[in-house]
Amino acid sequence: MTQSVLTIEHVSKQFGRFQALDQVSFTVEKGDIYGLIGENGAGKTTLMRLITGLSPMQHGTVTLLGEQAGHYQHALSRLGAVIESPAAFEKLTVYQNLRLCAIQHGIQDKQAITEAIDFVGLKAKQTTKVKHLSLGQKQRLGLALAILPRPDFLILDEPINGLDPSGIMEFRQLLKRLNEEQQTTILISSHILSELYQVSTRFGIIHHGRMIKQLTKAELDKANQSGLAATVDDTALAAQVLDQHGYQDFDIIDDHHLLLRQPEVNAAAVNQLLVTSGVGVQDISHQAGSLEQFYMQLLGQTEKQEGQA
């Protein structure tokens, strides 16, 4: 039986007339690395600020580690977070920042500080003032501060923003180690979708403040294989038509999407076959198979539906 670390139910948030979040619902299960995907302004940071109590609730409920937002007692002590930019004192050293963090959390064991520094690879920089660190080193420090109390749940908002390729790879490895070695559940947002794909076990896609899609990595891989992707009004009828005409290597993704696993198949011929057989076809095209491709297709379909509404 899975255990929920975070449950979001019908959460909405407005800033003046701007609807930042609109009836968002999703769940993060224990052991997940949940990748939160969305454009700038989609609502990712707003959502993370609500979860951590940095922004007040308006509508809906957030349940974190068994406690509701606005009534947290112990949940925040089991949470680590880096939202927007790591909070550190520029004039203090790496070690001094972690020492202050330890005092705030009532951690008396100095070995915990050393372990956090070693874990993120800042041992050689522990006596360096934060103002002299590179961007990547500051991101590592932010992670060290967040994991020092050994949280059950870690929230990271664009943690690889500005890192070079080697820094991104190292950060990815750190997150996997946290998840596997310390059983830390992670909620992470990033605009670098290729990296999010490599580290995440589940995904949620936010667009204009709404959660438009949730799926596991296995479901994404199934939907994302190369072939001919079709968006139709009736997948059951479409499947029947395709099967009757010799197209048997296909998957029904959901009520409106199916994928023919025959990359060489002629899209125009399949489109004509479906339409003349009474199937409404909204879109049909060859897909290469990546998180970016899936995301762009989903956004295109969503915006088309919004335009027709």
Automatic annotation (TrEMBL):
Q: Which residues form the ABC transporter domain?
A: 6-233
Q: Which domain of life is it from?
A: Bacteria
Q: Which UniProt keywords apply?
A: ATP-binding, Nucleotide-binding, Transport
Q: Which InterPro entries match?
A: AAA+_ATPase, ABC_transporter-like_ATP-bd, ABC_transporter-like_CS, P-loop_NTPase
Example of a GO MF term: ATP hydrolysis activity
Which positions carry the signal peptide feature in this UniProt record?
none
Q: Which Pfam families match?
A: ABC_tran
Q: Which family does it belong to?
A: Belongs to the ABC transporter superfamily.
* Full protein name: ABC superfamily ATP binding cassette transporter, ABC protein
Organism from which the protein derives:
Lacticaseibacillus paracasei NRIC 0644
